[in-house]
Amino acid sequence: MLDVGAVAERLIAPFGFEPALRDALVLLVALHDLGKISDSFRAMIENGSRQTYRHWELSEALFFAHDALLGAKLGGDDLQRAALYAAVAGHHGQPSDLVLGDLGGSSRDLRKVLRQVGSGLEPAGEVIAAFSALWSGASLQSLAPGAATTALSWWVPGLCATADWVGSNTTWFPPRAGQPRLADYLAEARAAAGRAVAEAGLAGSPVQPGATFDFALRPMQAACALVALPDGPVLAVIEDETGAGKTEAALILAHRMAQAGKGRGLYFALPTMATADAMFGRASEAVGRIFAAPRLTLAHGRAALSVPFRDLPTGGAPGEDAPSCTDWLKQSRRRALLADVGVGTVDQALLSVLPVKHQTLRHFGLSSKILIVDEVHEMGEPYIGKELERLLQMHRAAGGSAILLTATLPLDLRARLLATYGEANPGPAYPALTVAGGASVTGFAADTRPVKGPVQVDRIDSAEAAADLMVAQAAQGAACVWVRNGVDDAIAAVGMLRERGVAARLLHARFALNDRKRIEAEVLARVGKDGVDRAGFVLVATQVLEASLDLDFDVMVSDIAPIAALIQRAGRLWRHMDRRPAATRPVPAPVLHVLSPDPAKVTDDRWLQGTLGSGAWVYSVADVWRSARVLFAAGRIEAPQGLRALIEAVHGAGAEDVPEALVRAEMEALGKAAGARTLALHNLVDLSAGYRDAGRGADDVAYPTRLGEETRVLVLARRVGAALHPWAPPDPANDPGWSDAWAFSEVAASRRKLDRLPLPDQSSPEIAAITRLWPEWRSAGTILCPVAEDGTICEGLRYGTDCGLVFTPRA
């Protein structure tokens, strides 16, 4: 317990608490395992007896029973102490649900619980008295009742859990013989804690002085380097067109926030694992300019498969500025948010506002960070939008600052997000840099870099016409892409192009991970920022293209989609004009060819299906119709000055009414959105209720970070002789157990579709021989699927390296 208290002293020191309050919190954290001083815990250790109440629940009961002693020491009112008792006792990821009554030990239920403590009741009081003497100045006097105490109740469990993790590690705190005086032991524990916190990667990194970058700044970047920062927590919203350098602008602003003491680290929250992986590479190169030798982690479900993350140096003394990691931080995805700099999915951050186990640990990890949320427009769906609002509210309550990046944020959503930091909605100017409670920058210097100018919009009536256009443009040497709304439509489009003699590539989310990474690498090598051999390259892709890859095409066809998605897609058209100026392009101007029915001719609610097929069901038909109406009327996309008008014409208060034939579909979509918002409000933690009443410690799957069609994960295998091997080539030297190879062989698809198919019997001997060696989480959550030489998995399903997972008609 003293080891953990000593670690807590190190962890809490940078947060700037008033000394007496700081010591009070450390004292309570040191007492976190008081419930182990009980007959029931000793019986469990000695002979395996089952405990009626877990030791941390007994800790809270003992705090209640000895409140007279603790209250005399700490002060504060009953509600404050009860909130902090629950916070410390709940360090295993969830609060106690015992009914303990009032402080002071008068409750019959409390007496019932204390019977499990037995002879430990008096010794527990002796420990409280002895520890109180070690932190003699501890007091809650400076802690304001009400909101301040409630906010602290969410923060302290994460502090305690982190301190417990480190302080319980016998590498840093080995057991010792004898019975040293407690003061002497604490002195030794404090010395060990300094080493432990540093070696775990939690000691923090100094902020670097000076400028973030040495290149000539673009307009938004220059604004971020100069904008005034108000006192206290800050929320900034950066709105600018795709390719304007918003990431670098955010890093400049985050560096200035860190220099102003508004954060001691960063967390980059991205919409997908693919975007997080891409950002990790960029962050690895940049964060050393912000912090000296920062600890860097990757936070998402497949982080262990990232070669750049695995290759990050660990252990030993890091370089002067280069980021590194530690083995301790890499051991758990939950620990990733404790590093100086984390890059991951927004889901990892959103779990801090859902009542799941260790939610408070994530909140504690984020509380010291400047939270950078990229592609915020991707989070406008009602459920995740409410989560993001609550995340910002909780982050601000803990003193945290945040930066939001977007190209296509509707004004209504921007207003709700800014309101979390108390900012009234500013005007509609675009581009814009808005600092809540501070200045708004809407006047920017001209960008001296070459620009592509307006993107002309041209409507195409049929998929056949789109395919013919791609063939003709590729023959002229253009790098071409067709962005489709649905995977099945993308597969069909590639088939059409290949029938026309074009060796088109295909990229979508239904490839096994190793195949997807291989295809992405090839696409980046051909049409990425530094791509070569572009002439005649043709790609068909789904929405994975919108945010995860920095690509540059000469010609683009896109299925009609909501305006924000179309703007994002058009951002990959004539993208890098400094490297490929107009004169070098094989086509005279950038044109977005949109496959769409005529929005002026809507005769029934199947307006989209005849043109798009299955892709017609991906988005709200009302949003798609308004987007078509507005875009074709404008005839062009002018960035950045014309983007706000396009977005608001679709999503703003003055948006045009849909035709009568689409009203019912819009009403159904609005009802579904309202239901999603209601579900979010039901699922999110109630910050005002405090941790004891609103934390639940549920399983992650009970409270999803996103809504959407449920998927199942297939693990593909190939037959090698009489045995099954992972679909992804194994690496015996670095992965002798094939764990990575099986992970790289996974592919997810619609559960609704898969459940209709006769998937391979998992009890068959050849499959059971593999799955019985897997960890329980993998064998329970996946289906092993051998793939025949012709690609067949079962009737109605096949897989190919060039087409991915394909659903085929069944006889």
| Overall helicity | 40-55%
What low-confidence regions span 5 or more consecutive residues with pLDDT below 50? none
The main sheet comes to: 8 strands, mixed
Name the quaternary structure. single chain
Taking the alpha carbons of the first and last residues, their distance comes to 67 Å
Query: What topology, given as strand order, has the largest sheet?
Result: 3-4-2-5-6-1-7-8
Strand content: 5-15%
- CATH topology name of the largest domain, in short, is Rossmann fold
Inertia-based shape: globular
Q: Which whole number gives the mean pLDDT?
A: 93
CATH architecture of the largest domain: 3-Layer(aba) Sandwich
Q: Over the alpha carbons, how many angstroms does the gyration radius reach?
A: 29 Å
Derived from helix and strand composition plus strand pairing, the structural class reads: alpha/beta
The CATH superfamily label of the largest domain reads: P-loop containing nucleotide triphosphate hydrolases
Q: Give the total of beta strands.
A: 22
Number of spatially distinct domains: 4
Briefly, what CATH class of the largest domain? Answer: Alpha Beta
- Count up the helices: 32
Would you kindly provide a written description of the structure presented here, covering whatever features stand out?
There is one protein chain. By secondary structure, the chain is an alpha/beta fold. The protein folds into four domains: 2-200, Hypothetical protein af1432; 219-441, P-loop containing nucleotide triphosphate hydrolases (Rossmann fold, 3-Layer(aba) Sandwich); 455-656, P-loop containing nucleotide triphosphate hydrolases (Rossmann fold); 711-807, no CATH class. The protein has 32 helices and 22 strands. The strands form four sheets. Strands 3-4-2-5-6-1-7-8 form an eight-stranded mixed β-sheet, sandwiched between helices. Helix 1 (2-12) crosses helix 9.
